[in-house]
Specification:
about 75% helix, mainly alpha, globular
């Protein structure tokens, strides 16, 4: 709960919903594990009349197809990660930066490898409740770790190249 609120920026009411979903044994394990991700703050739904958003949606759909990923988080559930991805790609489109499938695919492939590592850590927990707790904590706590490591890697690569 503390990680969701203090680090993830999740409102208290939404954090309670995450805990309730995580404890709801009528949901399958996959949906219970994804409760934290769905609760993290995400941008508003992009404007429908924005051409950059439509371009971004097409790029994201093509990327997901190329990766062989389902975009469906589950029945009746929204995908804040997809919304954030579309929003981010639309910003790149507006600024004229390359962000087609060829540019996004290496990031998707790296993310797939990270997911294996994350879920190995989750699966190492001996109980379903421990796995759900680990999924929540790792979702919230490892995102800043990944961002920091990426920035440090940029500095190292920049020093090497330039």
């Amino acid at each position: 709960m503390r990680a969701l609120i203090q680090i993830g920026g999740v409102p208290v009411a939404a954090a309670r919903e995450v805990i309730a979903a995580a404890e709801d044994e009528s949901l399958d394990h996959h949906l219970r594990l994804g409760a934290a991700t769905r609760a993290l703050p995400c941008p508003e739904e992009p404007a429908e009349d924005d051409p950059a958003v439509e371009t971004a949606r097409r790029s994201v759909a093509a990327l997901l197809e190329r990766l062989g990923w389902s975009a469906d988080p589950g029945p009746g559930l929204r995908s804040p990660a997809r919304r954030r991805l579309v929003d981010s790609v639309a910003a790149l489109v507006r600024l004229g930066y390359p962000c087609g499938v060829d540019q996004l695919l290496p990031y998707g492939r790296l993310a797939a490898r990270l997911a294996v590592t994350d879920l190995d850590l989750v699966e190492a927990q001996p109980t379903p409740a421990g796995q759900i707790e680990a999924a929540v904590a790792l979702t919230v706590l490892y995102e800043p770790v990944l961002l920091s490591l990426r920035r440090m890697a940029h500095a190292e690569e920049s020093a090497r190249r330039f």
